[in-house]
Amino acid sequence: MNRLPNEPVRAGGPYVVELREVTRTYGGVRALRGVDLLVEQGELVAVAGPSGSGKSTMLHLIGTLDRPTTGTVRIAGHDVPGLSDRELSALRARHLGFVFQQFHLAPGVAALDNVADGLLYTGVPPRARREKAAAALERVGLGHRLGHRPHQLSGGEQQRVAVARAVAGDPPLLLADEPTGNLDSEAGTEVLAVLRDLHASGTTILVITHDAEIAAWCPRQVRVRDGRIAGDDGPGTGRRAPGAVPATAKGASR
Amino acid sequence: MTGETTGGTTGGRLVPARLGPSDVLRTGVAGLRTRPARVILSALGIAIGIATMIAVLGVSASSREELLRRLDRLGTNLLTVSPGHTLFGEQAKLPEEALRMVRRIGPVRTASATGVVGTTIRRTDRIPEAVTGGIAVQAATSGLLATLEGRVTAGAWLNAATETRPAVVLGAKAAERLGVTRTGVRVWMGERWFTVVGILGPMPLAPEIERSALVGFPAAADYLGFDGHPTTIYERSTEESVEAVRAVLPRTVNPENPEEVTVSRPSDALAARAAAASAFTGLLLGLGAVALLVGGVGVANTMVISVLERRREIGLRRSLGATRGQVRLQFLTESLLLSALGGLAGTVLGGLATTAYALARGWPPVVPPWAFAGAAGAALVIGTIAGLYPAMRAARLPPTAALSAT
Questions:
Q1: Is A179 on the interface with B (CB under 8 A)?
Q2: Which residues of B touch A76 (CB under 8 A)?
Q3: Rounded-to-integer distance, Cα A41 and Cα A220, Å
Q4: Res. B225: pLDDT tops 80
Q5: Domain coordinates in residue numbering, chain A
Q6: For A216-231, how does the pLDDT look when each residue is reduced to its tens digit (9 = 90+)?
Q7: Cβ neighbours of B10 in A, within 8 Å
Q8: Is the CB of residue A79 less than 8 Å away from at least one CB of chain B?
Q9: What CA–CA distance (Å, rounded) separates B25 from B5?
């Protein structure tokens, strides 16, 4: 969890995410109006804000799915505006993992294959993909459900499969977009517990949420409002262990 | 991950991983597996087009094969000699001794002649003279049946005795038109009764004989006023010497006016028929092409809808690191698989249809190999064209589609 001791610190710093004076305008709408955000390795950060605050735009930019209108976006040290679409694809394949609110699992396809297919574009050979997928499912506590199809799994389990898919390739950064938004509180607790464990083992995680409770659970909170950062606990604070998993759920913890 | 990625350096080059062929195939199949009904229906369009084309080509190839086999059985060594026209445009005549001359040519194995007699044949004397039924009365030498390798279906062929008597042998069609089914009946020829002594079977190489009533040369001269000039000489030689014989025939038959002699090879007409694709085949082939085109439009339509429905999947793949090219390839593969599936089904259907039709007609079922190659090629071309536009659309979708769609 410490700064990697042997890693030389170069220009741009050791940040996994580096946004500097980022703006993003859609047509005439200014979704982001000058955002600075630095995330170090191993942090668990909540980006919280009401809908329309610009947090989704931030997710798009950090996920390299979109480019800033002005400003600097560096992900894992790569300068996003300077990269071609192909290079961005390679960046996403190797450095980023996504967890979506709607899971986005392929229907009728076993959990193991859903996770293994997440590694399709990483250049890992098929057999190794399945091995990594099995290991990732083990990590999220679904080692006994490898052959289950999405419709045979509960919502929480489906989202855990999606988390396994996102982390199977060991990306330096995991982006979770409202990961509990489609789940009841018990299933949500299940997923947060998985995120907590991943964080404990050193994965950098960014959770985008409008849920104040989940935001409060994260050791570092970044509040977004009207396209600006309204509050930030500061780089590095996200390394602390998170609090107890929010227990609106009836005492469910793993 | 490697140090290059986590150390915060900008030095490492980012190169997307290549998908192996089996992975490309898997992504293509994945899209089809979830919508089996739609896959079957849109592949059906291609299948119908391909099946039509295969069946049309197969049926015409089968009928051609049948003709060629018949030709093989009949032999191609038969030549006919007939009078042409004189320099002044009049109908020429073959000399009376022409048949003897032909028989003297070395490689000639057998030769016979027929001569048109200027009279008619009628069932009875009550039928008006104008009603000929299209039947020609001809004098025939006794060797004709052997030369044509024909046979009689009833009675007997002319022999040394009957060729001098008022006896007649009817060709198959002539007998049918006269309503004669057995020998021994009498028919009215010229100004007297002749007795039917034989009825001939089919003569594929000499259809004119099928429509003739044949009497012996002596009888024709005695009873019907025949002038003795042959009008057609039939000749068979060894297969190898057909061309050589053909070259010398005119001069042999009519040394004074060889240009007034026409030599032909009846099997050529059959061969030409075998070689010629009928206009009907062309029309049906065009119909098949239209069906194929409609099938292609169906596939394109299915693919466009598929792309619209799968915005989120496309966005997900982009977020997982798929390049635009890889997304394009995925949808192109899907479209190709779809039309290949249709092509395969169509080939099987077309082959079955050809076999069924050919067997029903008693033909050998044949589908030319190039038709299969053409079907495969057509399916691939259609699949590519149909998939190109939807694939481009899929590739152009912004990667944020996965997150924005609800």
A1: no
A2: 5-6, 8
A3: 13
A4: yes
A5: 15-235
A6: 999 999 999 999 999 9
A7: 12, 74, 77-79
A8: yes
A9: 30
Average pLDDT over residues B275-298: 82
A105 DSSP 8-state letter: P
Give the right CATH number for A15-235 from 3.90.950.20, 3.40.50.300, 3.90.190.20, 3.40.50.720. 3.40.50.300
Please indicate whether residue B273 or residue A232 has the higher confidence score (pLDDT).
A232
Buried b (16+ CB within 10 A) or exposed e, B170-200: bbbbbbebbebeebebbbbbbeeebebbbbb
Q: What is this structure's pTM?
A: 0.74
Distance of CA A240 to the CA centre of its chain: 17
For A11-27, b/e burial (b = at least 16 CB within 10 A) is: ebebbbbbbeebbbeee
The widest CA-to-CA distance across chain B, in whole angstroms, is 121
Among all residues of chain A, which has the CA nearest to that of B403? A100
Chain A contact set for B6 (CB, 8 A): 4, 7, 16, 41, 76, 172
Contact across the interface for A65 and B324, Cβ inside 8 Å: no
User: Residue A92 and residue B319: Cβ atoms within 8 Å?
Assistant: yes
Segment B222-243 shows an average pLDDT of: 86
Chain A contact for B21 (CB, 8 A cutoff)? no
Vertex B90: Cα angle to B88 and B96 (nearest 5)? 115
**Closest to A244 (Cα-Cα) out of A174, A208, A193:** A193
Residue A197: is its pLDDT beyond 80? yes
One-letter identity of residue B106: G
| Percent helix, percent strand, percent coil in chain A, to nearest 5 | 35, 25, 40
Burial bucket for residue B384 (CB in 10 Å: 0-12, 13-18, 19+): middle
More confident residue, B391 or B160: B391
Which DSSP state fits A68? -
pLDDT at A249: 42
Q: Is the pLDDT of residue B91 over 50?
A: yes
CB-CB under 8 Å, B312 with A93: no
* C-alpha span between A54 and A75 (Å, rounded): 19
CB contact under 8 A, B321 and A89: yes
Give mean pLDDT, residues A94-113.
Answer: 92
Chain B hits for A14, Cβ within 8 Å: 7-8
| Mean per-residue pLDDT of chain A | 88
Over the stretch A117-132, which tens digit does the pLDDT of each residue have? Answer: 999 999 999 999 999 9
